[in-house]
Fold:
Amino acid sequence: MDLYTLLREFADSWVLLALVLFFIGVVFWAWRPGSRKMHEDSANIPFRHDDKPAAADSVGSSNGDSKLKEAQK
Structure:
């Protein structure tokens, strides 16, 4: 038995089993009962230091929108 065949059989059996177990472990770690607070905290990072809401003119408006608002005044 040459080296390639031996490594191929090893990869097809034991390495596949190890990768499946690793995947199940990662899924379990992400969905474990105590991780909800950690995931919510990470999801709220962009909003952590918002002292006041953004101005209405600067949020989602382009030049055409601001000219339209000025014309309506």
In short: Residues 41 and 54 are 22 Å apart (CA to CA). Helices lie at 3-30, 36-43, 63-72. The chain has a mean pLDDT of 79. The longest helix spans residues 3-30.
